[in-house]
Amino acid sequence: PGLLDEGFALYLADPFDRERNPEGVLNLGTSENTLCFDLIEERLTRPDMNYLQPDLFQYSDAQGIRSFREEIAKFLTDYARAAKELNPENITVMNGCCAVFATLSTVLCDPGDGYLIPAPYYGGINSKMWLYGELQPVHVPLFSEVTDEESHPFQLTVEKLEAALQRAKKQGIRVRALILINPHNPLGDIYPAQLLKECLDFAHRYELHVIMDEIYMLSVYDDITFTSVLSLESLPDPERTHFMWGFSKDFGMCGIRVGVLHTTNHEIQKAVNQLAVFHSCPGPVQHVLSQFLKDRDWMDNVFFPTNKKRLKEAQKLLVDGLADIGVPVLKSSGGLYVWADFRKFLKSQTFEAELELWQKLLDKKLLISPGKAFCCYEPGWFRLVFSNSVDKIYLCIKRLEEMLHTNDAEPVPNNASS
Amino acid sequence: PGLLDEGFALYLADPFDRERNPEGVLNLGTSENTLCFDLIEERLTRPDMNYLQPDLFQYSDAQGIRSFREEIAKFLTDYARAAKELNPENITVMNGCCAVFATLSTVLCDPGDGYLIPAPYYGGINSKMWLYGELQPVHVPLFSEVTDEESHPFQLTVEKLEAALQRAKKQGIRVRALILINPHNPLGDIYPAQLLKECLDFAHRYELHVIMDEIYMLSVYDDITFTSVLSLESLPDPERTHFMWGFSKDFGMCGIRVGVLHTTNHEIQKAVNQLAVFHSCPGPVQHVLSQFLKDRDWMDNVFFPTNKKRLKEAQKLLVDGLADIGVPVLKSSGGLYVWADFRKFLKSQTFEAELELWQKLLDKKLLISPGKAFCCYEPGWFRLVFSNSVDKIYLCIKRLEEMLHTNDAEPVPNNASS
Question: What is the predicted ipTM?
């Protein structure tokens, strides 16, 4: 298991609670959004949620209940500003995006094949693509230093994709897919439409499947325009372009376990649907989520505006708090986290020193996620999740400050920019 | 996809409904229990079900929420009459027994390995063990004719297991596991304790893992004693004995997607738990099912006694109805179905004729399951599910009668016993 799982297990064993366990582990490591649970809870108590017809408790279509897929298709058509109306037949419902990765990795490629992925990236993808599919990541390393060709840190370019692909070929790895996370995890930035198109063209040139992970699609809190792959007028290779989204992040319900695959490739979908029986969602859950999606008034005027406002506020709170204690962050527009630069607090610019810092923070009962967990190529970066209550953010800053500014963690001068 | 899936898809496309679609497909093919949904529904409306703490909507232990596993451990300890109290640490919760098969097949063996399984058996196991695990079934063929060594039709003996194992070895198949379904699907009978022990001893001799599928454990409607593998005082090979159960059948909630693995093998469980993230259950569902399991009074005095009574009545209704139209069934004690002998209605004693009969019944909008779907070695047997409302059972008999006693399906004399 990776560092993210390891950290989460430590948290589960001793979770912070204001009243019951104030000295417990404070979790800003796991990407969850609890900011709008009050709205979710209120909506769940309305009568439409309670009508549970007997059918929901019996076997149903393993691809997902038809009426639920219809609601998802309408929802994504509008909220992803789809170029054309989505067809419910192209949608498969599974118990989380983990399952979407598991089925795609099994179906798209053969064991041992590789997939290109810009690093840093959500490290859970490694095990999700490996455990059933036995696929290996081919990293496209990104760095914080800005060169002439780039406009910002950790910028992806097609040249970097190309270089990574050629390196993999030389190593004898057959690369079959490209995974892009947009909004990005952990960077929190968004692919400009132009770069997205260039990446799709690149994938098309090499006949790579593209897996677009847009699980943070509606967790954009800046006034920036987000371009979903579904919104592009013409895809270079629609048969090899697969989209995933879920309720975990944008609805703040990681525990409800519902992810969605959209693909127009019938062969791929047929194969995925065969596996979907292993990843199916309870009927009552499909019913309840349908009710959310049907309620446009609530989503348009209550939930999403409030969520965006609260994300923005929480992000600012954390970023300001970090600035106060001398920790800069990368500018971000989407996702539930910031990518923070702790390099000047490392004893040396190594991953050993990064892990040491992580461990010290854990000793102080603060869980954040080290760059290593995201296969970052540059030590000293950490992901901090801000979609938490105000008091937890303050407490995080407090614990950080105590740790970073005690003697043994005295900043060591180094040449890295910050 | 197999015949069971094919039949179910036909049903889903045109489901019978008393008022809205009285000419639709009547489904006595899918093993579901709708007899006690009134009780489930009533129980679901009590206030303890509604208390949904925020944690349930966030990430939790992929092995299953600890408090839910504790309830399952207590429940199985009592209801399976376990030899010793079960440890919640030995339990993994997944989204259905499909997922238990998928993870075990991936973890226990290598692709291409075989598992012994007495045939007929629930045919869905083929794809569940194949799609991720790539394991192949090694059939132990059973027949209806009773010989000197046997006391009843389709009887399993250790000699038959032994013979199948040796045949597989000669074919170069490495057999690594034995799957036993108890109560049996589709036969509806129960393994006597003595035979169960002999099978476990056999497996131990050959170092085979034993997967005990006891998903119908509490759907025993006869006054026969059911022996769960959990109840045995000493297992020949506890490290290779794995137990599965779920809420689908015994609680009549196939659509809730919750299955349970119990194993005392830590290595196996660790590996399964890594995969469990792909098969996790929603937190709110784990909460709701915990409430069921906590309510001993309701289970002991309301649900299970009523369920047993209704199963018994429904079984008798179907068996009597079948007898009236000349269709004998195998004596059964558990499960939701009977194994019915349609051999005298086949044009020839072949699987082609069996499929032809199946198709004709489907043309009459009656879905039952042909023996071929259970890898039966003898054509002419069908599984009929009786855990249905009275009017559906009557209608099934009516449609059967119309079909079987029209001219072109005139009984053809044959020598097979019936």
Answer: 0.94
